[in-house]
Amino acid sequence: MNNIYDVIIIGSGPAGLSAALYSARAKMKTLLLERSKAGGQIVITDEVANYPGSIKEATGPSLIARMEEQVESFGAERKKDEIKEVDFTGKIKRLKGIKEEYQAKAVIIATGATPRHIGCPGENQLIGKGVSYCATCDAEFFEDLEVFVVGGGDAAIEEALYLTKFAKKVTIVHRRDELRAAKSIQEKAFKNPKVEIMWNKVITELKGDGLLESAVFKDTKTGEINEYFADEEDGTFGVFVFVGYLPINGLFKDKITMNKAGYIITNDKMETNISGVFAAGDIREKPLRQVVTAAADGAIAAVEAGKYIENNFEE
Question: Which residues form the FAD/NAD(P)-binding domain (predicted)?
Fold first, then answer.
């Protein structure tokens, strides 16, 4: 079994890196598989202020770089390969990549999720420069500025209410004339003096040179176009997009139990319904998707994978 890893981790965001750190530190033969560069969503975050112990002016890339150093210092092996097929039916798990095939006693899935985008021109270029998908991460950067929240579900309205603690005005942009959020959440929004709602509107373009400077709105009923410009004194404003997430789950459909939204269901030990297969981070069903919860998931998954191996494989 020399060519078989103890643990293979798919994905190298905070959950995958944390799992690799704990797994390698426990002297397990560990492989961290990365499709591209490490870091996941956090690498597009200019500043990380809410991760416990973050140093002053910490950025997403700098935090990930420190995690990578730790992983390498404990001897975890890292390879860049894109996994195209998995076979979890046997005691030894098999993964087929573009470059190689891999085998492991336990697998930790940490492929993450990606936020749905508006899909309009200018959006991708202004991510982290006025466009955000995480109020918890970025709200403080918009203190005393105006912000727009795109969406009408529970998450969008809850995040809009959270943003009122920082922004001077929060405008919810919804493509219909009725919100989808729970009535109790809607009532809180309607009562908040900082919240306004733009009914039957979508954003069709975002503009700015280095920072978000204007947004183009279209009325979904009349087709009327209007452009909003940042206040001259402020120089910029925020657009927070909450129209859902897309779990990166294509490899595991029909192989692992997921919820209706496509997130992998685990217990508090990060165990999936498949023995020897664990899931950690944003790919799993959970109430909060943050670096701190991803790192915790990864640590738990690695520790539990170690226990699984001890109980199921003889030396």
Answer: 5-298
